[in-house]
Amino acid sequence: MQATERRKDSAQTKRRILDAAIIEFSARGFAGARMDRISEAAECNKAMVYRYFTSKERLFDEVFDEIVVQTIDAVPLDTDDLPGYAARLHEQHVRAPDILRIGTWDSLERDGAGMRLPAVVEATREKIRKIAAAQTAGTVTSRYAADVILEIVISLSQPPVGVTAGVSDEDRSRYIADAVRAALTT
Hints:
The chain is mostly helical. The chain contains 9 helices and no strands.
């Protein structure tokens, strides 16, 4: 096998492991996830999982980092339309519920360790910088600090847990946008 083919196979194996880990961690959390189930779903042996990721914690960190990057890419922050951004973020959570599940497991079982990953910290700082710049420009309210505004927007964007049965996702997105608009109106 040539080096190019090995690299391609290596990248495919790593991708299968990450995909299997997203499903496993989402369903069972960090404590309940099993490396043998991940390796079986990824169609590789457990030693291969450890070769790429060295530990279960490192694999969880890679998964967490990846889902954050995917969300940032899918739903870029728009400081000119924070209500619309919140609605689009909500829609992303509905499309990809693993994101919130893994984030919740991280918070419950790892004291939010995923939120302290360098890429996640930098992404959060960048969003706060953009909001602060919009505040300086006068396009976003200065009623709250930039980090508080980001927290409000993200909190309101998360799908509820069974409290609004019968509300369509489209209506819920509209309600979220309205709530963010009301919360940020001076």
